[in-house]
Structure formats: structure tokens, C-alpha cells
Amino acid sequence: MSTRVKSTRDLFWNLQAKRPISFGRLLPIALPAGPMKQSRTGVLALEDGSVFRGQVFGGTSTVVGEAVFNTSMTGYQEILTDPSYFRQIVTMTAPQIGNYGVNPADEESSGPKVFGFVVRELSPIMSSWRGHSSLDTYLEQHGIPGIQGVDTRTITKRLRVAGAMKACLSTEGIDDDEAVERARSWGGLVGCDYVKEVTVKEPFTWDRSDPNNTPYLPVGTTFNLGDPKQQTFRVAAFDLGAKHSIFRRLVQHGFEVTVIPATTSADEVLALDPDGLFLSNGPGDPAALSYVHETVKRLMTELPTFGICLGHQMITHALGAGTFKLKFGHRGGNQPVKNLETGRVSITSQNHGFASDPAEVEANGGKVTEINLNDGTVEGLRHEELPVFSVQYHPEAAPGPNDADPLFTDFYDLVKARASGKV
């Protein structure tokens, strides 16, 4: 006698027990992730001469960039579309990527900004009620090359030991020697201004009615609903390569957000009559953005200021302090950060390859407020006298933990206090 299957779980357990089964109304939850291009192999070559070959997916292209790794278990679409990854080839340490597909709501910018994508295994199926297409199809549509079936543990260990390296990723059939030569010939990231490649061209006001501004609420709960603000303040937000989730968080915490290009002058910002200034994340070498340093140096004496990631580094340079390149950077959703003023430890989402010099920060009117518990580097600072603070990590997460979300409330309270003449 057969057992009538009503769910995927029923199907699994009956197959395990080797029972005869019949199908009732079983809704499919898994869709093919797209045809695998098994007949073609691609190559990832590092400047140290290491070569990794595997099956290709995504776009057909040959690219050069900085090879980095990310330890996040989920959130690959947010990583792909984060402008901070411009000109980087990202290796994911999680063993399987692509199992829930991609969808427009999870885009952090206008399409992928990574230059290449490396995974141990591309999921052969996509299974999610939110999925619109497979990861393979998505990257193919945008011309971003990917490679799978390579030893991502070895790649990650090489990058941890030797540091982030120049790399070439090709899905066009070039040989190993050519790939290594292309990697070595690339000029590298240091000294490069990639912000001008990803910043908006014209100012615009972030749409407060966008349904994606509303935080996700588990059904039947008010978890993550937040505290609606009765008063709205205007903030001028420098787009240095910003993630959309940052603007959504600012809206959720009581701000009307005017997004402005990285090249906007201080006079143009002040003409907007904002109540506060926000500095976003972004790609490239923070030392190469002297035009932003000078603008921020003037504006932070006029406006309450909050910076994230590259924005944090812009405040560092505006103070007169410097930044330096990390060996392999911090990229993932599990970076522990300690607040030196409160003793609180937060697990944070991070994506950066440069850090602030702590001695120079404190010699130029700043105070180091947070450090990374893995390597002791600066994760937060505030000005000793001005209403200015910043963090190196991403309090908006996307993907990652929300431990640091209260920083947006801190910024709101700082702007409110300034508006009422208290600071």
C-alpha cells in the first residue's frame, strides 16, 4: 500500500524508508539553477604563480583585479552588488553558493560590482519563494565571470598567508601562463580612486515610500519594527559607493535622505541646508580621495557627521590622520568588535582592506572608540570636540548581524541634539 505524499518532508522520509509513494498536490520548491557549462573550464591565476582551474559559470570574460575572500555563509547577492567590491575577485569560503537564487529586492546597487566570483560549488538547484533567477543566469546577464569546482580553502589560505593578491579570472580559455602574466601586469589597488566609477552622477532624494524601506517582520511579530520617530531630519549622504540598505536604514531611523555625488563641494552641500552629514562605504584606496578629505574637513565643523567604512576613513583623513592597507582585510559577517567606552562586544559585518592609524587619529583630535578583537585595528572613532563619529564596519549588515543597528539611533539623537542647540 502506498503512502500519499503531501509535503517535501513526507517525500524525504518515505524515500529514506524505501516506502512506495504516490503524489498528491506536491508543490515544487526547487528549480534548476541553469545549465552548467561543464564542457568549458576557466582559470583563476594569482600573482604568486598559483593557478586554479574549474568549471565556468556566469559571463564569458577575462578580468583582472584584487583577489579577496569573504567568510559569510549567506548574502551572496548583497556581496556581489556591494560597490565596495569594485575591481575585486571574490572567493566565498562557504562550500555551496547559489541555493536560493537571486531577486531584485536584495540588490545593494544597480547590478553586480565584483569583477569575478569564485566558489567551491555552485548549487545545481535554486530553492526559494523569493528567487527570480539562478545565480548562474544572473551573472551571465551582467557579464560577470565565475568559476566553481576549485579548492577555495587553499585559495583562502594563500591569501591569508601572503595577503590579498593581484589576480586574473578567465572563462575564455586562455592558458595558465597568460593568466599569471595578466595578473602580474595589473597595477594593483593602492593609489586608485574607484569611487568616481560607482558614485551617483546627480543628487536625488531617496524614496521614502519604497516598500523595501520597511524592515522584514517575521509573521505575527513586531520584531525588528524599530521605534518610529516623530520628527524627521534632513541628511546629506555622500555616495562613495553606498549600499542601498544604508539609505533604507537612515529612512527607518527618521531621516529624509538626499544622496549626493562624491565630487559635491562643501558649498553645494550646505546649500541643501541639511541637518546632518553621512559618509558611505565605497571601493579603492582611501588615501587617493583628497577631494573628499578636504570637503569633509570643512563640513564636519558645520554638521553632525556619521561615517561608515570608507566614510570612516574619510573622517580619518579629514582629521589629518592616515590609513594603511591590511594584509588580507576584513570581509564577512562574523567580525568581533569591542567598544572601549562601554565594554560591549558586537558581532559585525565588514568589507574593507584598509584601516586607520590609531596613533595619528588620537594625535589629531580624534579618539579611538572601538577595536577589532581579532587584530586590534581601529573599528570606530569620535571627535573629541565636534559631533562627529564613525565606524569601520557595516551597522546596516546586509548581509550579517544587526548588533550595531543602534548606531543609526545614535546619529539621529546627535542630529536632534544639534538642532535643539544642545551640542
List the SSEs and their pairings.
Blueprint (H helix, E strand, L loop, with lengths): L2 E3 L2 H9 L4 E3 L7 E2 L4 E10 L4 E8 L3 E9 L5 H5 L7 E5 L3 E2 L18 E3 L2 E2 L2 E2 L8 H8 L2 E4 L3 H11 L2 E6 L5 H10 L9 H4 L5 E2 L27 E7 L4 H9 L2 E7 L4 H6 L4 E4 L10 H10 L5 E4 L1 H10 L3 E17 L5 E12 L1 H6 L2 E7 L5 E6 L4 E4 L14 H14 L4
Helix pairs in contact: 9-10
Keywords:
423 residues; alpha/beta; Rossmann fold; 2 domains; ten-stranded mixed β-sheet; seven-stranded mixed barrel; 12 helices; 30% strand
How much of the sequence is in beta strands?
A: 25-35%
Structural class estimated from helices and strands: alpha/beta
What name does the CATH topology of the largest domain carry? Rossmann fold
Helix count, DSSP H or I runs of 4 or more residues: 12
Molecular shape: globular
Mean pLDDT: 91
CATH superfamily of the largest domain: Class I glutamine amidotransferase (GATase) domain
Show unreliable segments. Answer: 1-29
* CATH class category name of the largest domain: Alpha Beta
Structure description:
By secondary structure, the chain is an alpha/beta fold. The chain has 2 domains: 31-185, Carbamoyl-phosphate synthase small subunit, N-terminal domain (Glucose Oxidase, domain 1); 195-419, 3-Layer(aba) Sandwich (Rossmann fold). The protein has helices at 8-16, 76-80, 135-142, 152-162, 176-185, 195-198, 244-252, 266-271, 290-299, 310-319, 358-363, 406-419, and strands at 3-5, 21-23, 31-32, 37-46, 51-58, 62-70, 88-92, 96-97, 116-118, 121-122, 125-126, 145-148, 165-170, 204-205, 233-239, 255-261, 276-279, 305-308, 323-339, 345-356, 366-372, 378-383, 388-391. The strands form 5 sheets. Strands 14-16-15-17-18-23-22-21-19-20 form a 10-stranded mixed sheet, with helices on both faces. Strands 4-5-12-9-7-6-13 form a 7-stranded mixed beta barrel.
